[in-house]
Design a protein that fits this description.
This protein is α+β, with helices and mostly antiparallel strands and 116 residues long. The protein contains two helices and five strands; from the N terminus they run βαββββα. It comes from Mesorhizobium cantuariense.
């Protein structure tokens, strides 16, 4: 079973990232662009230019993990701001993001209260 680092610090790197980047290059980007330490156990998410590929960089006690997900249809909801370099997410928002749901405006599902 693949487990992700248990942390509440989840960051999205705003804008598009070159998806050819690997672990070393993404970790360097975290240090230089986000001004954060990639070795602290936080989760860092990066999205490609087309928006259908996401890479997640995490560091546990033994080393870095790099996860990649590509959507068959649609694209990941991503902030594009010039003011912010990174956006912080909760675990629930990350779960919505990975399911391809817009984590900024999730829609509620109507459920009837009565059976009849």
């Amino acid at each position: 079973m693949i487990t992700v680092v248990p942390t509440d610090r989840i960051y999205l790197c705003c804008g598009a990232t070159d998806m050819r980047r690997g672990i070393n290059s993404l970790a360097l980007m975290v240090q230089q662009v986000l001004a954060l330490n990639p070795h602290t156990g936080a989760i860092f998410c990066f999205r490609g230019r087309k928006g259908h590929i996401i890479k997640i960089l995490a560091h546990d006690d033994q080393g870095f993990c790099l996860f990649t997900k590509r959507l068959s249809e649609g694209c990941f909801a991503w902030p594009t701001t010039k003011d912010q370099v990174a956006v912080s997410l909760t675990k629930a928002q990350l779960s919505l993001l990975l399911d391809g749901i817009d984590w900024r405006r999730p829609s509620k599902i109507y459920r009837p209260r009565l059976a009849g």
